[in-house]
Amino acid sequence: MQRKIKIILNPMADMGNAWRIARDLRSITEEHGGIDWSGTVYPGHAIQLAKQAGEQGYDLVIAMGGDGTVHEVMNGLMQLPAERRPILGVVPAGSGNDFGHGIGAPTDAAEALHRAIHGEPSTVDLGLMIAEDGRREYFDNTLGIGFGAIVTIRSHRLPLLRGFLMYLTAVLQTILLDHNPIHMQIEVDGKRVEEDIIYLILCNGPREGGGFLIAPEAKIDDGILDYAMITNVSRLKMLRIVPEVMKGTHGRFKEVTISTCKKFTLTADRPLYIHADGEIFSGPGSDLRKVSFEIVPNALKVIRA
Questions:
Q1: What is the pTM of this model?
Q2: What pLDDT does residue 180 have?
């Protein structure tokens, strides 16, 4: 039986390059027949479109865009009961495409679309964030607190750069201009610690920023969250650690903790900046100081290698 398929396109992903990619892929969808398209026009729109697709009986929803597009589509699907939840497919067309890399999606858009249409699904885990104000949001790849969220905000202000170079430039800017550790009370699977933290990231997948190998051992179907944490270090030491993050060898520094958990809770001494899969969840003007995270095993069916 042929799947009923909806493609949700973010035409502005990768500085508008996603629109050109989609244009070149129309012939593939026409050959297949019966594939519908929807385009996003405002932040959060893909959440609504994905939920509607499930309510309308689509079997497969393909996110065409960057990690933010996949994040929104996934959160829309997770608003549906499991028995009515479509399978997720991904055509990477953004700047980082880290989730696409994690599921083995081809980098060539035509190959990725063919895989998404004809491939078989398997389940992946998702992370779930619960804020002190009751807001809940899933993340499929990584969630950064403090440093990582500021990097994300800064990367959006670099329109002349793309991909890994864009994120690397934002990292260097953040080290130089926003080197402010956060005092945190942390509880990890029942164990409590109190530290000044310069960098904290929860990982379902191994990398972010188009190639920073944050948690080399992370797997999206192992039933656990990985996390990486750097305690208060100097700017010079951060500049020394960054090249190691690119290779996934940063765990050798005594100031770096890389470990796993199923539940993670933190309370901070000041408002938190948070990104989830590159989408800002809490930024300037927010007063969010306490948040928890947990792994949701086998949460979603995804077409993957």
A1: 0.93
A2: 87
